[in-house]
Specification:
Layout: E1 2-3, E2 9-10, H1 27-37, E3 43-44, H2 59-67, H3 82-94, E4 105-108, H4 110-122, E5 128-133, H5 137-145, E6 149-154, H6 165-169, E7 176-182, H7 194-207, E8 210-214, E9 238-244, E10 257-263, H8 269-281, H9 287-290, H10 293-298, H11 303-307, H12 312-326, E11 330-331, E12 340-345, H13 355-366, E13 368-369, E14 371-372, E15 383-387, H14 392-412
């Protein structure tokens, strides 16, 4: 402890938080809240929260919860209620995943809790986990919180943010325990090709790595993109597929996610027992929301109306693509899935661009909140992430403000003029 206000000893945070970051809800978000309290209207594009932009959970899911409220007042099995787990099994079987029963399904308070639990049950101090860069930052944070070390494998913008399997394998050491796949990807919107996923599956089997496949955006794909479930490709090692109600079913507040184990489950009995122990310690996940799972997975998939041409998500994404194409300051690898775009600022036009400085200026001067690229564990500083959840008109206005700010920055930047053949300044 150290001396604080009035000479008293201050309470310090745990040293274990030293390498934990989640800037999506960090200082910029807190400043946005301050500005809102001052009366400013802030366009918040930092979080993929469908409800905040007028999306509703399908009515059938709400009715399923209401009808089962009387069954939601007590604890349930630590893995979740059977109808929810069985519905997840049926979905996996329909997708071609073999050998899964309700015993291999864990229901959690969203995928976020399951990320923490699966890593806590797996890692010893110093164990390494391969995590994509850019990543959804909870993965890196959760590895660090659970005494592991996140080793980032690059997903380069020039490759459309699709990883190179050879670069992944080059980062494997004797301490590597698992590899994280986020597909469709947050924050980039990349949807990984089958051949890439197959190569990663073979690498994982070769090195006996646990595959942790975050597929929360599994049905949110655009154009001709194909979502390939990782569990259909992994047989010779353990595969954990994570998904939930938050995004596809626009039910973030229900806090319902699931983890499904497939592949070499037989040799993972001790690990799965450890995961069940951790699940028992938190008693159970939110019960009321679990009653919506069977209806969600077995009912009409309204997300398809939103992602096809003419659908709101499709058209909002198209507005982003069109706005970037018109800008002389921006470029974008075409997002093929999920709810985000990872926009690049052209370094040839603004070579000294700093995404954190830009994000603060955009918030203070234009009242738009975005997430700086460095929030997603990348080594470069010329990107920012936005969500395509707002209406197209709102996004068109946002990009008008972004271009205004970038134009002002470009005009204020010092320029060098070459004089004479000798190149004197």
């Amino acid at each position: 402890m150290k001396q604080g206000i009035n000479g008293r000893m201050s309470v310090r945070a745990s040293d274990g938080l030293a390498n934990v970051r989640y800037e999506i809800r960090g200082k910029l978000a807190r400043r946005a809240l301050d500005l809102e309290r001052m009366g400013y209207d802030i366009v918040s594009l930092n979080i993929g929260n469908p409800y905040a932009f007028g999306f509703r959970t399908p009515e059938t899911m709400r009715l399923a919860m209401i009808e089962n409220l009387r069954h939601s007042e007590g604890y349930v099995h630590q893995k979740g209620i059977f109808p929810a787990r069985e519905a997840v099994v049926m979905q996996q079987q329909e997708r071609g995943v073999k050998g899964v029963t309700a015993e291999e399904v864990f229901i959690g308070n969203g995928v976020s809790e399951l990320i923490d639990l699966t890593l806590r049950a797996l890692l010893n101090p110093g164990d390494e986990v391969l995590v994509p860069s850019p990543d959804y930052p909870l993965w890196t944070a959760a590895v660090n919180l659970n005494t592991g070390r996140a080793v980032h494998y690059p997903c380069h913008p020039a490759r459309g943010f699709v990883p190179d399997p050879d670069e992944i394998e080059a980062r494997i050491t004797r301490r590597t325990r698992a590899i994280v796949i986020v597909n469709p990807n947050n924050p980039t919107g990349a949807v990984y090709p089958r051949e890439t996923l197959t190569a990663i599956a073979r690498i994982a089997e070769k090195h006996r790595l646990v595959v942790l496949s975050d597929e929360i955006y599994d049905q949110i794909v655009y154009d001709d993109a194909e979502f390939v479930p990782m569990a259909t490709l992994v047989q010779g090692t353990l595969c954990c597929t994570m998904s939930g109600l938050s995004k596809v079913y626009r039910a973030c507040g229900y806090r319902v996610g699931w983890a499904v184990f497939s592949g070499d489950v037989e040799n993972a009995a001790e690990y799965l027992s450890g995961l069940e122990l951790l699940s028992s310690l938190r008693l159970c996940s939110n019960v009321a929301g679990q009653w919506a799972v069977q209806t969600a997975l077995g009912g009409y998939q309204s997300i398809r109306e939103l992602t096809r041409p003419g659908g709101r998500l499709y058209e909002s994404r198209q507005t982003i693509l069109d706005s970037v194409a018109r800008s002389k300051y921006l470029k974008l690898a075409r997002p093929m899935g999920a709810l985000y775009s990872f926009v690049e600022v052209r370094e040839d036009v603004l070579p000294d661009f700093d995404d954190q400085v830009f994000a603060l200026e955009l918030l203070e001067n234009k009242h738009v909140l975005v997430a700086p690229g460095v929030s997603f564990n990348v080594p470069y500083k010329n990107c920012f992430r936005i969500t395509n959840l707002p209406e197209s008109e709102v996004l068109a206005t946002v990009f008008g403000r972004i271009d205004e700010l970038l134009s002002a920055r470009a005009a204020a930047a010092p320029t060098l003029h070459v004089v004479g053949a000798a190149g004197k300044l």
